[in-house]
Amino acid sequence: MTLLQRIEARLVERLPVRIQARLLAAHVASKAIVRSAFWLILFVLAAKLIAAGKEMAVAYRYGTSAMVEGYLFVFNLLSSPVSLLFSVMSAVLIPHLVTQQREDPDRVLRWQRQVTAWVWLVAIVLGSAAALGLPRLLEAGWLGLDGAARSAALSVLPWLAGIVTCGIIAGWHACQLMSRQQLGNTFLEAMPALGVLIAVLAWPTTGGSAPLLWGTLLGFVLQVLLLIGVAKVAGAPIDPSWPPGRPFQRTMMSNASWLVAGQFIMGVAGVVDQVLLAHMSTGNLATYGYANRVMALVLTLSATVVGRAVLPVLANETDAALRLRLTRLWARRLFWLGAAGAAVLIAMAEPVVAALFERGSFTAADTEKTTYLLRLMALQWPLYLVGTIWAQWLLASAHVLTGLWWAALAGTASKIVTSFLLIGCLGWDAEAICVGLVAATLGYWIALRASMRALHREHKHER
């Protein structure tokens, strides 16, 4: 029995007898979801605490200086596409890994070595392109920075481009671990933040941007090395196969394209929101931003835990009818869990906002406005969780992922239309954007359910 299993056994022994009985009587797949969700919550919270410590240390040392603005601009510019690639790899590759590890273990080992080779090639090419191309864009002024912030960005960019290479490699090995329901990769995502935290605390105050640069790089390298080590211990192949061959099927490439298209559409909705807010009276953009930070933290944590706990379990279920029943069961449970969470957030919104932001120039009036917006945003939580788990069902069922694209399109259209109607007809300000978020979640869920019903009918007809 492993250390984690011993801890789980001790925790179960301390639960009330009735809850113990329900856990013991649950289906093995439900037990796996509960177990994964429990550890994921702990790992995510630990990672968030490290990230919060890093933010506090950086703010204490650098404040809002041009140096930290340049660093953050480059870091966000480089990490955003890496995050997109990781989400696509997770959605497309994990179900395939889970299925093939069950059906053809020898073949999937060879396949993983081929994928490893392609991941290294793509990571090195994109990292090199960022190191060579982005400085020229910055110097030309096309990316918007100027003055001291641009100088700071140029000083870190060639080296910091290494996070693209490290991030892509780390994402692949994280997929290998998640397909085996090994969850430590979630905590290891905090290594870049830990590297910055240690560097900022230990480096002399005359170090300039060096603590940020080298702390970030060392953190990403440490993350990659630890992931490779853990993957090797878990039995996943880590060495690339040369020549790499052609491991990616046409369906995989098609699904990756649909996912990227969906992400792009949802990104457009965010840009529209910012444009609308920028045309409103002063204060709307800022208060929306503060409320959205709190809500984004809640939704990101929820999506991370639900997605990573559910997808490998559903993909490993060979009985399609049972997979559908499990999804419906957990969709109901997560709806009520999300409703309870939304109720708590609505009740606690004002003290939470006051504790986080109300100091200095952030007044009690700002707290009241931000609280109102946060309460409106909280209404999306129940259906957000339901949509997340149904998306995992679609990913685990090996269908073509056009349904996710249509869901993204429906959600974006619902959001934009709702926002424009509330602004144009009722004269609402930032609250229109918040209600638009709720409409987007509803539209996404309705379109996803329609796609799933069509697939289910098609599957029954084929049988």
List descriptors.
single chain, 463 residues, mainly alpha, 17 helices, 0% strand
Descriptive report:
The protein is an all-alpha fold and 463 residues long. It is 84% helix and 0% strand. It is built from 17 helices and no strands. Helix 9 (191-202) runs antiparallel to helix 10 (210-233) and helix 13 (320-357) packs antiparallel against helix 15. The longest helix has 38 residues, at 66-103. It is globular.
* Count of distinct strands: 0
Task: Give me the strand/helix succession.
Answer: HHHHHHHHHHHHHHHHH
Helix amount: over 70%
Shape: globular
Average pLDDT for all residues: 82
Percent strand equals under 5%
Class per helix and strand makeup = mainly alpha
Radius of gyration of CA atoms, rounded to a whole number: 23 Å
Number of helices: 17
Stretches where pLDDT is under 50 for at least 5 consecutive residues are none
Note the main sheet.
none
Please sum up the structure shown.
The protein is an all-alpha fold. The protein has helices spanning 3-13, 17-25, 28-62, 66-103, 105-140, 147-160, 162-179, 184-188, 191-202, 210-233, 250-278, 284-315, 320-357, 364-378, 381-396, 402-426, 430-462.
